[in-house]
Each structure stands twice: as structure tokens, then as C-alpha cells.
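Dear H.,

Thanks for agreeing to be a second pair of eyes. The structure we're designing against is below in C-alpha cell form, covering all 476 positions.
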């Protein structure tokens, strides 16, 4: 048997973080077993489905590195097939026309509310002849569900889940306008696409009972099911936008690497001993359904940031600069004035500075911000801490520019020797010279190693920036 999984999002919004994890689990399971993952866009809700959402889902999956097999299947385009299956159930006596009016259904609802029980259709048309149909009412087609016994799902995550059939009513398969319901469409599509494993959120667990009944009525094999607990916010409440229930594209804009987000998501609800960091191949080799926990996972931004920092430090410098450049178009307002690409000169400076820059940063946005000194326009705008350091230390920098001017072989070691000698000459500790010098050259109180900064900036830019600040009027 070839394992076939599917990711089947509804295109009513972006690819959110829970959906991304579901897609990852399906992808890993298929890869682990040498099978296929299919992508089906469940666009039967015509009012809420949008092209922009479809594109966001596809872009999000591609960015995360989750590829699928074959063409994207659009559920709405298969409506004729869904109708055909509903009508075949009708012909076999496993479904029936229901002529209950909207008013009758509302009365059923009202009665159920008053009696404090869940709404269930009362089966009033289950055994009646359509010749008794009231004039002018278009019927729906309902499944003739079993009324006795139980419906069982042997779930790979939740274990054995049992529903009493008397508690499940005859669900609608085809609406009165001839459009299929979600329940029917999912079953027919999964069957026709040869899906063997349905891995999805546990909010679909009740649907599993309904869909199992449709499979059984059709005499089709029911796929293996695995219902994964939801993701909660750090406070244990349902994950919402304030927690970070954002679209995958928002994580890209915030400067996370796809490899880090993928690694973080795989550990949300699934474990493999104490291992936290997985290469893609390690994930594929280790992933199974039995190690998915039954309790909801909690989203932890600090853990994601630490993981992202780890992957940034592992990424080759040239690749990190490429990743920064891809982020440029997404920076709101581009306060960095960098445009959409790096100039060749800035690119080579960024590559040279990257070993020092990537040690501290947790995201690409932080990384770009910490590289400010490389692309800042002269005269530099100093932040408040830098202004204070320079105001206090400016007298100790007097004359250092002439000493630096005399350096011929401009390397980190050569400039360090000059700065150390200057500090000794003015009777100061190294930090008392280095800190105001850092402020003058970077506009910040913190940066990568000062002498590395000077080496990357080069002699001309270092001296120009230093002289800009030395000639500026001291802060009052």
C-alpha cells in the first residue's frame, strides 16, 4: 500500500500556524513511508473563499519547503462528482429526500433549546414517500444513518473513540440547491484521491464519526485517522492573534528562517526523546503518529527565537545576506533606506561583517538592524546611549584620527594596536576610548567587536565618520 496523505485547507484566510503544522505532519508522514502528500483546496464555501487566500496558502507552503505531489485539487470543481455519489446513495436506499421546511427546522431547534438538548434532525422524512412532498419545497438529500449500535474511530492519536448512533442524526449530503455539503465532499475527494491517512486538527474529531458513516454507507474503506490537539497560547488560552496565531507570511516578515519555523513546529505536540533540533532528514526518519501527545501544545515565542538564532549561526554568511535581501521588500516603510536590493559594496561589507553580526541576533530583522552601522548615511544619527557615551568620551578621542590615518595595512589587529596605544597615551582604560569610538562609528552603544567593525568599514569610512562626530558640537 502506498501511503497517501493530504493537506486540505479552506481558503478563507492565510495559512495560519496550526495549519502549517498540520501540513508539516502530513508531509513528514508521507516522506517517512515513501508515499505522497496531496494538496486539496476546500473552496466549497464560495462566499468566503478568495484567490488571495489560495495564493497565501500556496506561498506559505513553498516558503516552508513543504512540497506536494501532483496538481492542486480544487474541491468546488468536483461538485458534479459529489452530486453523483449522493444520488447513488439515494438509488441504493441509503439516503432520502427530506422536504422539511426552514420553518420546521427552526421549530426543531427551538424545541431542542427548550429541552436543553443538542439539535438533531428528527428523521420525519426518513421513511415517507416523496409523493407526500409539499408543493414548492426543494428537498435536500440526507444520509440514512444507522439509529442503533455505535460508530467507532480507531484514532492514531486519540485512541478508540466511540459515538452512540442514536446521538447522531441524518446529516445533509446535498443541499436543496444541489450543492454538496462539506461532509460529503471530503469523503468523496479522499476516496477518489486514494488517501490512506487523514491527519488533521482534533476540531474535526466529531466530523470523523459523520464521515465514517458516509464511508460505510458507500461500502468504501475508511482511511486511518489521526486527530492532532490544537495549539494554545503561552497562557493556556486558545491561540489567537495576540499570541502569534499569525499567517506564515507574518513569520517570514518578522525574520524567521523557514528551517527554524519547521523545526519549531515539528516539536509542537510531537516528541522524540529529548531532542530539540532536527535536520529535515532527521525529522523524516523519526516522525511517527504514536509520539504525538494528546494534550494541546503551547506556543512559545522565546523558544522559537532561540531556535532561529541557532539556525542563523549555522547558516553560511552568503546565504544569510541573501535571506536579508529577500526580506527587504517586506520591511514596512523601509526606514533603513535600503531599497529592494543591496549594492555590491554593501553586500560585500555584510558578508565580511556577518560572523560578528549573527552571534547576537535572534531574527533576520534584528540582524539587519544590528548591521545598521554598515549602511547608515553620514552623518550618523546616534541613539541616546551613543550620544551620552560620545559626549563623555569625546575629549579622550582627540588626536586618534591622525594616528589611524597613519595606518597603512588596515586590519582589525592593526587598528586595535593603535587604539590600545592611544588609550595608554591618554591615561585611560581601553573601554574608555573604545566605547565613545564605537558610538561615533556605529551610532549605537553596542555592536560586534569594534576592531572588526573598523576593518569592515574600511579606513576612509572610519575616518570620515569619526571626523563627522569630532567636529560636531558637543551635546549640551
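And this is the sequence the design step returned. I haven't edited it by hand at all.
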Amino acid at each position: 500500500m502506498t501511503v497517501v496523505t493530504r493537506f486540505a485547507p479552506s481558503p478563507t484566510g492565510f495559512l495560519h500556524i496550526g495549519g502549517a503544522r498540520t501540513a508539516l505532519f502530513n508531509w513528514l508522514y508521507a516522506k517517512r513511508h515513501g508515499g505522497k502528500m496531496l494538496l486539496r483546496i476546500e473552496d466549497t464555501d464560495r462566499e468566503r473563499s478568495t484567490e488571495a487566500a489560495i495564493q497565501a496558502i500556496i506561498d506559505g507552503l513553498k516558503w516552508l519547503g513543504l512540497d506536494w505531489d501532483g496538481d492542486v485539487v480544487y474541491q468546488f470543481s468536483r461538485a458534479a462528482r459529489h452530486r453523483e455519489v449522493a444520488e447513488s446513495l439515494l438509488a441504493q436506499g441509503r439516503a432520502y429526500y427530506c422536504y422539511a421546511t426552514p420553518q420546521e427546522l427552526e421549530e426543531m431547534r427551538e424545541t431542542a433549546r427548550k429541552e436543553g438538548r443538542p439539535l438533531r434532525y428528527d428523521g420525519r422524512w426518513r421513511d415517507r414517500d416523496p409523493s407526500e412532498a409539499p408543493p414548492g419545497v426543494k428537498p435536500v438529500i440526507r444520509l440514512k444513518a444507522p439509529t442503533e449500535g455505535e460508530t467507532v474511530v480507531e484514532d492514531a492519536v486519540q485512541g478508540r473513540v466511540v459515538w452512540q448512533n442514536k446521538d447522531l442524526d441524518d446529516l445533509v449530503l446535498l443541499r436543496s440547491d444541489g450543492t454538496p455539503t462539506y461532509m460529503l465532499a471530503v469523503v468523496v475527494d479522499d476516496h477518489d484521491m486514494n488517501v490512506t491517512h487523514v491527519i488533521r486538527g482534533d476540531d474535526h474529531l466529531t466530523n470523523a464519526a459523520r464521515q465514517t458513516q458516509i464511508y460505510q454507507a458507500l461500502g468504501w474503506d475508511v482511511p486511518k485517522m489521526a486527530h492532532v490537539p490544537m495549539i494554545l497560547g503561552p497562557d493556556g488560552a486558545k491561540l489567537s492573534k495576540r499570541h502569534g496565531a499569525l499567517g506564515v507570511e507574518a513569520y517570514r516578515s518578522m525574520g524567521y528562517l523557514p528551517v527554524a519555523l519547521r523545526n519549531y513546529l515539528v516539536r509542537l505536540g510531537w516528541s522524540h526523546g529529548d531532542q530539540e533540533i532536527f535536520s529535515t532528514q532527521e525529522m523524516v526518519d523519526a516522525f511517527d503518529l504514536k509520539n504525538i501527545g494528546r494534550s494541546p501544545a503551547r506556543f512559545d515565542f522565546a523558544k522559537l527565537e532561540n531556535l532561529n538564532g541557532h539556525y542563523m549561526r549555522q547558516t553560511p554568511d552568503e546565504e544569510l545576506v541573501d535571506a536579508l535581501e529577500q526580506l527587504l521588500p517586506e520591511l514596512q516603510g523601509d526606514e533603513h533606506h535600503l531599497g529592494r536590493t543591496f549594492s555590491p559594496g554593501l553586500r560585500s561589507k555584510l558578508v565580511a561583517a556577518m560572523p560578528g553580526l549573527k552571534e547576537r541576533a535572534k531574527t533576520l530583522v534584528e540582524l539587519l538592524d544590528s548591521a545598521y552601522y554598515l549602511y547608515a548615511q553620514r552623518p550618523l544619527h546616534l541613539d541616546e546611549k551613543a550620544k551620552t557615551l560620545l559626549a563623555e568620551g569625546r575629549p579622550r578621542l582627540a588626536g586618534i584620527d591622525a594616528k589611524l590615518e597613519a595606518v597603512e595595512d588596515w586590519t582589525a589587529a592593526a587598528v586595535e594596536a593603535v587604539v590600545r596605544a592611544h588609550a595608554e597615551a591618554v591615561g585611560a582604560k581601553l573601554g574608555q576610548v573604545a566605547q565613545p569610538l564605537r558610538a561615533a562609528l556605529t551610532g549605537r552603544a553596542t555592536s560586534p567587536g569594534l576592531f572588526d567593525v573598523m576593518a569592515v568599514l574600511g579606513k576612509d569610512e572610519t575616518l570620515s565618520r569619526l571626523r563627522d562626530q569630532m567636529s560636531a558640537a558637543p551635546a549640551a
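Two observations from my side: The chain has four domains: 4-71+231-298, 76-228, 315-375, 384-471. DSSP finds 20 helices and twelve strands in the chain.

Warmly,
E.
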